[in-house]
Design a protein that fits this description.
- With about 300 residues, the protein is an alpha/beta fold.
- It has 11 helices and 8 strands.
- It has a domain of about 200 residues: 3-Layer(aba) Sandwich (Rossmann fold).
- About 40% of the residues lie in helices and about 15% in strands.
- Helix 2 crosses helix 3, helix 3 packs across helix 8 and helix 4 packs across helix 8.
- About 45% of the residues are buried.
- The model has no long low-confidence stretch (mean pLDDT about 95).
Length: about 300
Amino acid sequence: MTSPIVHIPVRHQFVDADGVRVFYREAGDPAAPTLLLVHGFPSSSHQFRELIPLLADMFHIVAPDLPGFGFTEVPAEREYRYSFDALALTLDAFVEKLGLQRYALYVFDYGAPTALRLALAHPDRVTGLISQNGNAYLEGLGDAWQPIRDYWAEPGNPERRQVVNDAVLNLAGTRWQYLHGVKDVERVAPESYYLDALLLERPGNKDIQLDLFLDYANNLKLYPAFQAFLRDTRLPTLVIWGAHDPFFIPPGAEAFKRDNPGAIVELLDTGHFALETHVDHIARRIRDVLGSIQA
């Protein structure tokens, strides 16, 4: 007898929070444990498009687009000042608007410093953590950061800003982030990096991204606070990492065990966007490690 196919629909919605029209994807039973997925640069909740259906029978999934990314809309009259503090405040307002009282966090890239700020503000709400190339340690920063480090050293130098713009904020740079370190590039759907590159071309968006690159230096100052959170809470934690990521390198993954010895660390034979090639495995490991958390 053939088993029935269980299809849990993904809802694509907007909500007003912090003066921003936040786009988000949602699936699963709201009574189930919530998993809050926070994307990174230069992507959006689109990066979770294949993961969400694999987890929605076990978790209530919520995946927003941060301001400056994806389909979230920031009105000009809001006069939004793009920084990681601001992204975290908007994420906090979004969570409040949806009434999420407890949630596990899935953090990737920019999602790590954004969502870990949320965790610092509400540590009692966080039930677990998945870090997929979401860094919180100095040793996790790879050589690919050098042009941005040079920009940090001379923030007023327009040539430094232009170097970062030319290296990263275009289709070639975005494609490289998706494909670098990937053994079988045919596993990566081209619409992923084409969508990201297209959205980067919106009027004013490249300046937004350059401002965030500059502000990323302030995340390093918060690493000790993030590490103290990991050490004090020792939550169920899965650190699952594309080992060939040139931005966030394996020592950053291994470092999580320094503050939470119970963290499970896995290095995958892929690059920065590990979900593009290993989504089934990552979903299974999330179910294994966080399957027992309570709503």
